[in-house]
Design a protein that fits this description.
- A hairpin with a 6-residue loop joins β2 (48-52) and β3 (59-64).
- The strands form two sheets. A five-stranded mixed β-barrel has the order 1-4-6-9-7.
- It has helices spanning 2-17, 85-95, 165-177, 196-213, 215-222; strands at 36-42, 48-52, 59-64, 74-77, 101-102, 108-112, 122-136, 139-140, 143-148, 188-194.
- α2 (85-95) packs antiparallel against α4 (196-213).
- The chain is an alpha+beta fold.
- It has a single domain (32-211), classed as Inorganic Pyrophosphatase (Alpha-Beta Complex), CATH 3.90.80.
- Helix content is 29%, strand content 26%.
- It has five helices and ten strands; from the N terminus they run αββββαβββββαβαα.
Length: 224
């Protein structure tokens, strides 16, 4: 929680004159990890893959979608998180695999809502329910599954185990297939669908990893 408090002043200061960087300049929220601010890159109607440019903070086109599968939920990442050593340790502990590293990105999140949201590059409040323990090569690539905070349809769900099986199956299928390319061997697996408790643990670990990775950045920003 300490790193979140340290980053708040720069988020406020930069927001007065500039667009805040969605990874570094946006607060994860005072109620994290139970309720978090999430940055949405993609929505279900997108036919190209959008991704934040980590240097500038602007949303860019990563690649056109080559197949008909589209993300069945809002998709983006959790600000001020980082998949580093402590996230990788947890992945190895739970999966039984060795030599896993963090993927060096913020933690990915998909957010369920009944509302039709037509574009990304937005911030939303969300409530984690669980997620997928996904391993891409030898990298931990956890996917948190959450619901839009206050959503009428999904507000009653408290854990991923309560969601309809088809909702979970569709999300799982997307993550196992969206990187498929002809002639390329797939090196992605989901070892487990984990519950809310583990999702919160991953988020907390990723906040610690972020603090350790960007400790120098935080020190510089405190002097702005």
């Amino acid at each position: 929680m300490a790193s979140n408090r340290l980053m708040d002043p720069i988020g406020r200061l930069m927001g007065l004159r500039y667009k805040s960087h969605p990874w570094h300049g946006v607060s994860i929220g005072d109620d994290a990890p139970e309720i978090i601010t999430s940055y949405v890159e993609m929505v279900p109607t997108d036919t190209v893959k959008y991704e934040v440019d980590k240097e500038s903070g602007y949303l860019r086109i990563d690649r056109p979608q080559k197949y008909s599968n589209v993300i069945p939920a809002l998709y983006g990442f959790i600000p001020q998180t980082y998949s580093g050593d402590t996230v990788a340790e947890y992945c190895m502990e739970k999966s039984g695999k060795k030599n896993i590293t963090g993927d060096g990105d913020p933690i990915d999140i998909c957010i369920l809502t009944e509302k039709e949201i037509t574009h990304g590059d937005i911030l939303v409040r969300s409530r984690p329910l669980g997620g997928f323990r996904m391993i891409d090569g030898n990298e931990s690539d956890d996917k948190i599954v959450a619901v839009l905070y206050g959503d009428v349809m999904y507000e009653g769900f408290k854990d991923i185990t309560e969601l309809p099986e088809m909702v979970v199956a569709r999300l799982k299928h997307y993550f196992l297939t969206y990187k498929d390319l002809p002639g390329n061997k797939r090196d992605v697996e989901i070892t487990e669908v984990f519950n809310k408790e583990q999702a919160l643990e991953i988020i907390e670990r990723s906040m610690k990893d972020y603090h350790m990775k960007f400790e120098r950045l935080e020190s510089l920003l405190r002097n702005v």
